Amino acid sequence: MKAALTTLGCKVNHYETEAMRELFLADGWTIVDFSDAADVYVVNTCTVTQTSDTKSRQMIARAHRANPGALVVAVGCYAQVSPETVAALDGVGLVLGTSGRREIVSRVREVLAARKAETRVLPAAQQREFEPFSAVRDSRTRATLKIQDGCVNFCSYCIIPYARGPLRSRPLDEISREVSLLANEGYREIVLTGIHLASYGRDLAGQSVTLLDAIHAASEPAGIARIRLGSLEPLFVTQAVAEALSKNPKICRQFHLSLQSGSDAVLRRMNRRYTSEEYLRAVELLREAMPDCAVTTDVIAGFCGETEEEHRETLAFCERAAFARMHVFPFSLRKGTRAETLGDHLTKSVKDARAKELIALGKRLTERYLQSQIGSVVEVLAESDGAGYSGNYIRVSTGAPEGEIIRLRLTGLDGETACGERLNEKSFISV
Ligand code: SF4
User: Fold this and answer.
1) Same structural domain for residues 62 and 208?
2) Chain segment 172-187, per-residue pLDDT in tens
3) Assessment of whether the complete model's pTM goes beyond 0.90
4) Within a domain: residue 428?
């Protein structure tokens, strides 16, 4: 039997697709390219914007066209929030949403045997269990481990809490076990990911554990040289947290704090829980504790009612925060979110023009950050092509064999890739 899988959307979705691919392989299936003829197509959908919905539907249609007799399985966030729409699409025979994916292979077999369409979407609000997918091996050196799911923040533009449900954390002992396994397999870098990582532990009743405990558990196994963190909530970064992070040399000096807007009025309308000053304080705390760290962010251009002045405030704020990298998205209204009640929506051309300005600023800030790092000493984990990333997420050519950690002084840039001279000192990370 042949299965083909494809993913739309975020890193967590990609993670979950990889985990499902492993489940099919373990059951003896052959995995083929999504454009090839398969018996089963799995489309891991996304609903973060209207475009994501459209693309999810297009991928389902593409699967059906590739083999009209095949079973199409729709999973992920769009399938979760719009199961009836998805189930009605040609070829779709199973809709799983954001739960029940660990049993995907047996459910597929059941549907194939019965050959009738089924929708098994557990409402997001009823999802209580963390789905313990294994880590995803991104390469031979780096693996991603999902340790948290769900979000209860209900930012007014965001559909994710409706698609992913309440907070669920992976228990600490499972994190330790999984990372030890990866260390034994020779993995050197672990990326810890989640939907709202900073909420890690809040649902683990009576254990009073936080993300710092999860990081500690993941950094312990010998052989693991680096821990990279997914997106963090600005208010999570207190002085104590910044100091704790700085004392762990395995933590990559790259921190992603989603900003969304630099205007306090817009942040309030977005139902974000921090002010621009509080955000900036978090950035300062990280930089005081780890001076060379890269701070990266997401920004939404043209949220409901955003005035030209508020947009200018965001541009000025980003300049002041001196981000190493910015991901910019024009605002896209999601049905069912609180933004629907806000009104005062901007035209597409205004949103696109503002996004363009922010993207141009982000490019300048990246160049500035990279220039500022010339002369600094970094450690790079070499990948299969000899290049790799420093802890502060600078791509560096090394020519070293895969898996080796090289200490270099950065000497120049070729576009966004740096080069450097190798230093013979020992790595500061003891593994
Ligand atoms: S914190 Fe806000 S933006 Fe992030 S997933 Fe939760 S609701 Fe969405």
Assistant:
1) no
2) 999 999 999 999 999 9
3) no
4) no
